[in-house]
Amino acid sequence: MKIDLIISADDISEVKTKGKTVVVIDMLRATSVITTALNNGAKKVIPFLTVEEALEYSKDNRKNFILGGERRAVKIEGFDLSNSPLEYVKELVNDKVVIMTTSNGTRAIKGCENAKNLLIGAMINAKAIAKRIIELDNDVVFVNAGTQGQFSMDDFICAGYMIKLLEENDNVDLTDVAFTAKHIYESHEDIQSFIVNARHYNIIKSLGLEEDLGYCMKKDILDIVPFYENGEIII
């Protein structure tokens, strides 16, 4: 199994993702939100690139949808929920369709539509993702959503953890960047000691969202694998 890694949404290219198993990671916080919402009973999550597209899609049947997302880490005006996974509780999302748009995560997902399999990963479901990758038995590309088109330390170490799990359970051939991500994780298994220096981590902390950070750094608390197909994310 060959394993590669793309460092941000701006670096996604068709030649790198076509025909591969792709895992999109936006640990802080979009892929953590998606995984949590589906685990708490949401029917599906539909990602959009823009606020306008999300509003247009939901306008005729608003009561059946939850609008969620952010711009610059802040809740979008007129939306039901922000990009905090802690808001997507069962009482709100069960049996609902979540319409979502974020600055980085949904853009990364939409950019990988040519993948053979497109999985949604985070720390909270990393072992489940690794297990599914092995079952799919295909070359893998981890796609870090990044932050505003730039490299993001949090997504990088999350990918490193998943790569470490794969190495423990399968024969892998790592690119240099994939090996580096794994090495970073092995040097910082507590996660926080590395990402405390990340710009995005500190933006979220400055907004008083420490509980979100604590939740998103938890490993393997959910055993589901969301996947993107025909414009929708389901399990």
Helix proportion = 25-40%
Number of H/I helices:
11
Decide which structural class fits the backbone.
alpha/beta
Characterize the largest beta sheet: strand count, sense, and whether it forms a barrel: 5 strands, parallel
CATH topology: putative 2-phosphosulfolactate phosphatase
Report Rg: 16 Å
What's the average pLDDT? 97
CATH superfamily: ComB-like
Sheet with most strands: strand arrangement = 7-2-8-1-9
The count of β-strands is 11
Number of domains: 1
Enzyme class: hydrolase
Protein name: Probable 2-phosphosulfolactate phosphatase
Family: Belongs to the ComB family.
GO molecular function, one term: 2-phosphosulfolactate phosphatase activity
Q: Topology, pairings included?
A:
Blueprint: E1 2-6, H1 14-17, E2 21-25, H2 30-39, E3 44-47, H3 51-58, E4 65-71, E5 74-75, H4 90-93, E6 97-101, H5 105-110, E7 117-121, H6 126-136, E8 140-144, H7 153-169, E9 173-174, H8 176-187, H9 192-195, H10 199-206, H11 210-216, E10 227-229, E11 232-234
Parallel strand pairs: 1-8, 1-9, 2-7, 2-8, 3-6, 4-6
Antiparallel strand pairs: 4-5, 10-11
Helix pairs in contact: 6-7, 7-8
Structural notes for this entry:
- The chain has a single domain (2-228), classed as putative 2-phosphosulfolactate phosphatase (Alpha-Beta Complex).
- The strands form three sheets. Strands 7-2-8-1-9 form a five-stranded parallel beta sheet. A four-stranded mixed beta sheet has the order 3-6-4-5, with helices on both faces.
- 39% of the residues lie in helices and 20% in strands.
- It is an alpha/beta fold and 235 residues long.
- Helix 6 (126-136) packs across helix 7.
- A hairpin with a 2-residue loop joins strand 4 (65-71) and strand 5.
- The radius of gyration is 16 Å and the shape is globular.
- The protein has helices spanning 14-17, 30-39, 51-58, 90-93, 105-110, 126-136, 153-169, 176-187, 192-195, 199-206, 210-216, and strands at 2-6, 21-25, 44-47, 65-71, 74-75, 97-101, 117-121, 140-144, 173-174, 227-229, 232-234.
